[in-house]
Design brief:
Bound molecules: 6-O-phosphono-alpha-D-glucopyranose
Shape: globular
CATH superfamily of the largest domain: Aminohydrolase, N-terminal nucleophile (Ntn) domain
Number of helices: 20
CATH class of the largest domain: Alpha Beta
Radius of gyration: 25 Å
Strand content: 15-25%
Strand order of the largest sheet: 3-2-4-1-10-9-11-15
Number of domains: 3
Distance between the termini: 12 Å
CATH architecture of the largest domain: 4-Layer Sandwich
Largest sheet: 8 strands, antiparallel
Number of strands: 27
Structural class: alpha/beta
């Protein structure tokens, strides 16, 4: 998704803005731009593609100026070409924007009627012209900016600067987040604190509907009604966090390797290891403590990989806590007109905590009076702030667009919640709790062991790299994991992949099987292993090339010669979805590296999707 940066500085800001934009690259983008004020002239450089193109342009034709705004654009309205890249200008006004202006057609029509000429296909350009129109009508710059913001419908974060103002940026948010950074004689703004980490760790987050007047030495925040409001300054942990690849070739690989540590860190937040019990700590509104005993239904809503974490937990909550679970992708949930139970709870899972569809699902449940809980990786996020109970994942910033460590940390929280729910609801005895808690606490050790399989997985990945299609099969919790495997492979390597519940194979997809079709089967040796092996035999009988991910017992019992295997250690059933995620991730990663795609920023994808 688009990223925004602004600096009201005391030195040339263009290189600083590009540096900050690099820290927003992980969000996904397809063009970029920067504008500064040089004397009384607004000037800009924009370029299609990666920031390196923008840098080349800036090197050839530098921008001076101590105040500026910058942007990485993920195309929504209009192709990812230079004329659509931000900043957008209208006479003396420059604008960068993240989100969607829903009423841009009406506004554009009216502005064209007023004599404004549009040079792009974007919705953003209306903002620049609206502000310019305000100025033309005699408003002061701040009034003109505010007046424009109030005319916009939709979700947006934006920043506006003026050719006449060397000490002023006006910014605002309605939906996507915006962080203001405080420096010494400099002020900054960015889509997140990570972008501002090189400059400052003193951050103020705007709340929904806020807009802010930023000057070199001060800022004033107003709410939607124009009343001045106070928002606390916080010490961001963004600057303390390493946002580089270390020795790894890609952020994704680094994040795969961080998993033993972050899974352990996350579990430690929900498990009392000394007391061998679940300790459901949350950082939400304690007026509404979470009580699973009184629930009769749980709705889980999320998007992408987070949805698949939720799907896995359906098996856990139903099995261990006897709690019925509905699981939906957020974009379907909110229009499904779901009848809500008075004793129900709605749980939202989101790495970023800002995904527009998930947030819309949350608002729907809020209106229905549901108890709201969230699992997020970004504690200051909108979804976290809108929920009664918040269970953070402690994965640290995830930069690779394809989610890895956030997923396994989500699973770690969900497994802890499911066991905790089982205890609260009287379906898990003290003895079982001790056993399950000890099994969960083994997850980091197993994750570490499995990382050692990387070389053999890499060799297998090379056999996938020239394929056009791949099937993934699994049963029970390995079914959502098969979906995650297929999702990872397609998003990273652009190879078409699909997942099926193994038992469903014979109801259609078996028609696809021939000697060219690789089939990844996820099947630890468990109570349904035999059933999965039967499905695997159906594939083998038709010449399909099987890659079996199993454990030593499973490899032995499968009794099939000539199939490729990834042999995992034997491990307790409850942690298999967490640990089996790692070979799935590594398989997709190495296939993509072999194919030669952009692993950390696959084409067309965004990390944080703040549009519906
Ligand atoms: C995007 C990302 C996915 C992510 C999904 C949900 O599609 O590319 O990796 O799973 O959004 O994001 P969230 O921040 O809500 O977990």
């Amino acid at each position: 998704m688009c990223g925004i940066v602004g600096i009201v500085g005391s030195r040339p800001v263009a290189p600083l803005i590009v540096d900050a934009l690099k820290r927003l690259e992980y969000r996904g983008y397809d063009s970029a731009g920067v504008a500064t004020l040089e004397g009384e002239i607004l000037d800009r450089r924009r370029a299609e593609g990666k920031l390196i193109n923008l840098e080349t342009r800036l090197n050839a034709s530098p921008l001076s100026g101590n105040i500026g705004i910058g942007h990485t654009r993920w195309a929504t309205h209009g192709a990812p070409v230079e004329v659509n890249a931000h900043p957008h200008f209208s006479s003396n006004v420059a604008v960068v924007h993240n989100g969607i202006i829903e009423n841009f057609r009406e506004l554009r029509q009216a502005l064209e009627g007023d004599g404004f000429t549009f040079t792009s296909q974007t919705d953003t350009e209306v903002i620049a012209h609206l502000v310019a129109k305000g100025l033309r009508d005699g408003l002061e710059p701040i009034e003109a900016a505010h007046s424009a913001i109030t005319q916009l419908h939709g979700a947006f974060a934006l920043a506006i600067m003026f050719g006449t103002e060397a000490d002023l940026i006006v910014a605002g948010r309605n939906g996507p987040p915006l962080a203001i950074g405080h420096g010494e004689g400099e002020m900054y703004l960015g889509s997140d604190a990570v972008a501002l980490a090189p400059f400052t760790d003193r951050i103020t987050y705007l709340e929904d509907g806020d807009w802010v007047v930023i000057r070199r030495n001060a800022m004033t925040i107003y709410n939607l009604k124009g009343v001045e409001v106070n928002r606390d300054e916080q010490k961001s942990i963004g600057s303390a966090l390493m946002v580089d690849k270390g020795n790894h070739r890609h952020f994704m690989l680094k994040e795969i390797y961080e998993q033993p540590e972050v899974i352990g860190h996350t579990l430690a937040n929900y498990i009392d290891f000394n007391g061998d019990k679940i300790a459901l700590r949350d950082m939400g509104d304690n007026q509404n403590p979470l009580d699973f005993a009184n629930l009769d239904r749980l709705n889980i809503t999320a998007c992408g990989t987070a949805y698949l974490a939720g799907y896995t937990s359906k098996y856990w909550f139903e099995r261990h806590a006897r709690l019925p679970v509905d699981i939906d992708v957020a974009s379907e949930f909110r229009y499904r007109e779901v009848p809500m139970s008075e004793k129900g709870m709605s749980l939202f899972i989101s790495q970023s905590g800002e995904t527009a569809d998930t947030l819309a699902g949350l608002k729907y449940c809020e209106q229905a009076g549901q108890h709201l809980a969230a699992i997020v990786n970004v504690r200051e996020s909108t979804i976290a702030r809108s929920s009664h109970n918040v269970f953070p994942t402690l994965a640290g910033p995830e930069i690779g667009v394809a989610s890895t460590k956030a997923f396994t940390c989500q699973l770690s929280v969900l497994a802890s919640l499911a066991v905790g729910a089982g205890v609260q609801r009287g379906h898990i005895s003290r003895e079982q709790e001790i056993k399950l808690v000890r099994e969960l606490s083994e997850a980091p050790r197993y994750a570490n062991d499995v990382l050692k399989l990387e070389d053999s997985i890499k060799a297998l990945a090379h056999t996938l790299a020239n394929k056009e299609h791949v099937l993934y099969l699994g049963r029970d919790t390995n079914y959502p994991l098969a979906m995650e495997g297929a999702l990872k492979l397609k998003e990273l390597s652009y190879i078409h992949a699909e997942a099926y519940a193994a038992g469903e194979l014979k109801h259609g997809p078996i028609a696809l099987i021939d000697e060219e079709m690789p089939v990844v089967v996820i099947a630890p040796y468990d109570r349904i292993f035999e059933k999965t092996v039967s499905n695997m035999q159906e594939v083998a009988a038709r010449g399909g090339q099987i890659i079996l991910i199993t454990d030593p017992r499973g490899a032995q019992e499968a009794g099939m010669d000539g199939i490729k295997t990834i042999i995992m250690p034997e491990m307790p059933e409850i942690i298999t979805p967490i640990i089996y995620s790692l070979p799935i991730q590594m398989l997709a990663y190495h296939t993509a590296v072999h194919v030669g795609t952009d692993v950390d920023q696959p084409r067309n994808l965004a990390k944080s999707v703040t549009v519906e």
